[in-house]
Amino acid sequence: MEKSKTGYSGMISRAKELQYTLAARVVIRPFSLRRGYVAGVDAAFKSGKVIASACLLAYPGLERVEESVAVMDIDFPYVPGYLSFREAPAITEAIGKLKTRPDMIIADGQGIAHPRRIGLASHLGVLLNLPTIGAAKSRLIGTSEEPGPFKGDMAYLYHDGDVIGAVLRTRDNTKPLYVSPGHLTDLESAVAIVMSCVTRYRLPEPTRCAHNQSALNKLLV
Fold first, then answer.
1. Non-local CB neighbours of 155 within 8 Å, separated by 6+ positions
2. Is 23's pLDDT higher than 70?
3. Which of 94-98, 181-185, 212-216 shows the lowest mean pLDDT across its residues?
4. Contact at 8 Å (CB) between 37 and 100?
5. What residues does each domain of the chain span?
6. What is the pLDDT of residues 97-142, one digit of tens each?
7. 186 burial class (0-12, 13-18, 19+ CB within 10 angstroms)?
8. What is the CA radius of gyration of the chain?
9. Which end of the chain, C or N, has fewer beta carbons within 10 A?
10. Is residue 195 classed exposed, middle or buried when 0-12, 13-18 and 19+ CB atoms within 10 A define those classes?
C-alpha cells in the first residue's frame, strides 16, 4: 500500500512539473479567423476508457465537415486540476484523425483559467501548436461578478489579481460558460469566436457536436 501511495504521489508530482513546463510555452495574443475550420473536442468516460470526439465545422457558416473518435484506456487517476492527463491523449488522437487540420480548437474545458494556467485547452494548444479556446460549463478557479441576463453579457474572471477568463452568457437567462484563452489567442478573441459559434443553444456548435458524439460513442463502447 505504501508503495502504491508513493507511486501515486510521484505521478502527480511529475504531472505538475510538466504543467509548469507547458504553461511557460503558452502564448496569449490576438487571433482572428474570417474563414476556415473550427474543431470542437470533448471526452466521455466508461469502463476504464476515455472516448474522445472531434467535430470539424466550416467557419463562419458552421456547416459540419467531418467527425472523428478515439478510444483509449485511462492511465491517469481522477484529480481536479490534472484532467488534461486523462483526456488530452485521446483528444489529440481524435484531432489527428481529421482529414483537415483545424484553424482553431474549442475545448469543453479550461484554457488558462487553471491554477497553473494550463487547462485542457492550453495543454492541447501547446502540444498541437494550434490556437485553442477553453469553453467550460463550470468554474474551476477564480471569482467574478454575475454577468447580465442576456446573450452576450459577460463578466471578467479573476484569480490572484489576474484576468484569466470571462463568465459569458451565451443564451438569455441560462447558465453562463467559462471562457478563457488556451494558446495563440487572447480573451477578447476567444469571447468573439465563441459567440460567433453560438446558435440557439448554450454551447457553441463545435463543442456541442463533440459532446453529442462522445455521448453517442460512449453507448457503443
1. 144, 145, 146, 147, 166, 167
2. yes
3. 212-216
4. yes
5. 2-220
6. 999 999 999 999 999 999 999 999 999 999 999 999 999 999 999 9
7. middle
8. 17
9. N
10. middle
Closest CA to 117 of 183, 32, 176, 66: 183
Which residue carries 476515455 as its cell?
50
Q: 177 phi and psi, to 5 degrees?
A: -105, 160
Helices then strands, each counted (H, E), the chain: 5, 8
SS3 call for 142? coil
pLDDT tens-digit map of 68-83? 999 999 989 999 999 9
Please name which of 170, 112, 118 lies closest in space to residue 142, comparing C-alpha atoms: 112
**Interatomic CA distance for residues 135 and 210, integer angstroms:** 13
Task: Give the CATH H-level superfamily of domain 2-220.
Answer: archaeoglobus fulgidus dsm 4304 superfamily (3.30.2170.10)
Residue 5 and residue 21 in contact, taking contact as beta carbons nearer than 8 Å: no
How far apart are the two ends of the chain, measured CA to CA in Å?
Answer: 32
